[in-house]
Amino acid sequence: MGDDDSTPGTGEAPIDGAVAARVVEERPVDADALANALVETNAELVGRHAELERSAEYVTVDGVRAYRVDEGTWGELLDGFGFDEDVAAAVGQAHTEQARLMFADAVDGDDRFAADEVGVVIGVDTAEQF
Predict the structure, then answer these.
(1) Residue 88 and residue 79 in contact, taking contact as beta carbons nearer than 8 Å
(2) Which of 7, 32, 46, 105 could bridge 2 with an S-S bond, Cβ 3.0-4.6 Å?
(3) What does the angle CA 49 – CA 50 – CA 54 come to, to the nearest 5 degrees?
(4) pTM of the model
């Protein structure tokens, strides 16, 4: 859990607690299950920046990178996790909402994603920073 019982924590995942709380309110998923899935997803994706940078628009804010990717790419990224449908949908919603917020902050308010685009948010390993 987060600092208090009203905001779910996201552990080591680069997703704001407020974003996670909104997702938990809207989806049939437990806050701890979402937090665990977000941490697991981030840990697996941390080394995939170069792959995503070749094909996706991105912004970097405070040591976190947000990508705008097509739904197919997101599906491929999630394939190996084995999350149930509700958890997978909640993880996708959290990533997309966080990415939109980051794009809005970094690109003069441009948080518009195409209908077939989703967000991927990954912490940047210091070894990967240029």
Answers:
(1) no
(2) 7
(3) 115
(4) 0.86
